[in-house]
């Protein structure tokens, strides 16, 4: 068969597939009102409209079609939600219907067939994994009990920055924070700091990019085999590299367990490995099913959840503080008064009200997960008069919600922490104006840890140092471009010069 014949065959098969889908959809939806949305193309639907920064493209479309908009990504009916009240309808009022996750090629490769928590379907398996991670790692008590290790790692960073400050060096702030969070996470999960045998931050960035991409294979399955975006190849390479890292971590822990029967100082991986041999465990359901690939998928979720998110948030907060010297100054003054010594302790954080406003405002403008993680509906439902069919994908435009002009009034694009003064807007999933951690059943289980990481690191680094931009760049010239993925990092690393401040 010639290449032209082959191409014609593919196009004809695609068109036939699309035509059958359209007929099926029309029969199902006959007489039922759909949320408004733009007209799509045959086969690909609206995939071509997403662009390089989908959160921005979808935000623009929603300004025309409204806060509950329907589009079609290939064959997948998709609802885009872009206002707080609409988000509340989906994530609170009808949370049970939308608490599942869609199938995704990236999760198949990178999460051992969606065996972790973040990408698994709603149901008893997901519940058992979530309960295990919450009780054994992410509960307030567990996280607070690990304050010492966070303080130690942060102390090491401060010392290295003092050396850079004395030498007047430019530091790669993004890189430094990435390493810090990696160290803190490794100690928490594996009982020791970052391992020189592998580079977790780098592989996590790749994973976030792949997992966040709108992969044509997920939406137009017959095109999957062609790997038009190169995502299948990248997923395979990353999955293999990550698997090697996870195998090393588990091997090390098994070796340790063989040589040490004191059972003291057990870290998260030790607890997980012990689960299999412990039938009376509180986590009986998981204990019965857990195997090596489930163990790896869960560790991967924890590494990914902890590292990429906190470091991205800290980078944006610091960028905004450097761009707004008066906000930086006010924050330093608050910390001086409350902390009143060199080291910021976690017990100080709740008293730092202005820091809280700074964090909220930065997460409003730069939500770490701009489109949350996609949800999927588990049954047909009518919401706000619109019919939404089972297995629809739900995308919450977190980035757009932070810019809803009806909520944030004027200066929507401006970094203005004071806008939170005297309001009761919270960021823990109760106030739908600001949901950086999502909300409802699938809301982030690592929120307590995430908030501590962010607040502690920012507070200490602005308390110990003033920060200047290098190469004569003025604050308002700092590049604030975004790079899209499951998370939304800065497109360029943040470079800055620390100047030591005596408290
Ligand atoms: C600044 C810090 C963080 C932010 C902004 C953040 C944000 C989010 C968001 C938006 C979601 C998706 C919610 C949804 O789909 O509705 C999520 C889910 C998740 N996060 Fe976080 N997160 C952070 C820190 C963490 C940490 C420290 C961990 C764990 C160590 C973690 C683990 C997870 C997991 C496992 C899920 C999936 C939950 C599920 O599907 O049931 N996150 N996070």
From TrEMBL:
Pfam families: p450 (PF00067)
Entry superkingdom: Eukaryota
CDD domains from the UniProt entry: CYP71-like
Entry binding sites for heme: 444
Membrane topology value: Single-pass membrane protein
Keywords annotated in UniProt: Endoplasmic reticulum, Heme, Iron, Membrane, Metal-binding, Microsome, Monooxygenase, Oxidoreductase
Location relative to the cell: Microsome membrane
Cofactor requirement: heme
MF terms (GO), sorted A to Z: heme binding; iron ion binding; monooxygenase activity; oxidoreductase activity, acting on paired donors, with incorporation or reduction of molecular oxygen
Major localisation: membrane
Family statement: Belongs to the cytochrome P450 family.
Protein name according to UniProt: Cytochrome P450 CYP736A12-like
Annotated source species: Daucus carota subsp. sativus (Carrot)
């Amino acid at each position: 068969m010639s290449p032209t014949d082959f191409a014609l065959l593919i196009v004809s098969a695609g068109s036939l597939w699309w035509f059958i889908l359209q007929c099926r959809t029309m029969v199902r939806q006959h007489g039922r009102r759909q949320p408004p949305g733009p007209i799509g193309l045959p086969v690909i639907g609206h995939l071509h409209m997403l662009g390089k920064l989908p959160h921005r493209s979808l935000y623009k479309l929603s300004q025309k079609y409204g806060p509950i908009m329907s589009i079609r990504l290939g064959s997948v009916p998709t609802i885009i939600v872009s206002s707080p009240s609409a988000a509340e309808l989906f994530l609170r009022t009808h949370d049970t219907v939308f608490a599942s996750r869609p199938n995704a090629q990236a999760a198949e490769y990178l999460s051992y067939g969606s065996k972790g928590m973040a990408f698994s379907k709603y149901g008893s398996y997901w519940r058992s994994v979530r309960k295990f991670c919450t009780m054994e790692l992410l509960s307030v008590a567990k996280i607070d009990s690990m304050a010492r290790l966070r303080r130690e790692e942060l102390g090491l960073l401060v010392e290295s920055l003092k050396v850079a400050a004395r030498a007047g060096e430019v530091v790669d702030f993004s890189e430094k924070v990435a390493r810090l969070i990696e160290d803190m996470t490794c100690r928490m999960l594996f009982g020791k700091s970052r391992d020189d045998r592998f580079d977790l931050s780098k592989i996590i960035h790749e994973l976030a990019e792949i997992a966040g991409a709108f992969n044509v294979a997920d939406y137009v399955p017959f095109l999957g085999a062609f790997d038009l975006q190169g995502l299948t190849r990248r997923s395979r390479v990353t999955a293999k590299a990550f698997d090697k890292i996870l195998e090393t971590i588990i091997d090390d822990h098994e070796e340790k367990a063989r040589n040490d029967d004191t059972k003291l100082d057990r870290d998260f991986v030790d607890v997980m490995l012990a689960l299999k041999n412990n039938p009376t465990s509180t986590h009986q359901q998981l204990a019965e099913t857990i195997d090596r690939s489930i163990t790896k998928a869960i560790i991967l979720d924890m590494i990914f959840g902890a590292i990429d998110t906190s470091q991205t948030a800290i980078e944006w907060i610091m960028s905004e503080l450097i761009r707004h010297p008066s906000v930086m100054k006010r924050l330093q003054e608050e910390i001086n008064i409350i902390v009143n010594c060199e080291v910021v302790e976690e017990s100080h954080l709740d008293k730092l009200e202005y820091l809280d406003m700074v964090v909220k405002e930065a997460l409003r403008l730069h939500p770490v997960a701009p489109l949350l993680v996609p949800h999927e509906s588990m049954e047909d439902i009518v919401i706000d008069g619109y019919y939404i069919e089972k297995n629809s994908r739900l995308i919450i435009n977190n980035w757009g919600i932070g810019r809803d002009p009806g909520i944030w009034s004027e200066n929507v694009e401006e970094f203005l922490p004071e806008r939170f003064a005297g309001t009761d807007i919270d960021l823990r999933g109760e106030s739908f104006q600001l949901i950086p951690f999502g909300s409802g059943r699938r809301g982030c289980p690592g929120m307590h840890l995430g908030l501590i990481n962010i607040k502690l690191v920012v507070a200490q680094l602005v308390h110990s140092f003033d920060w200047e931009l290098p190469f004569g760049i003025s604050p308002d010239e700092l590049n604030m471009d975004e790079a899209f993925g499951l998370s939304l990092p800065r497109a360029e690393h943040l470079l800055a010069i620390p100047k030591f401040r005596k408290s």
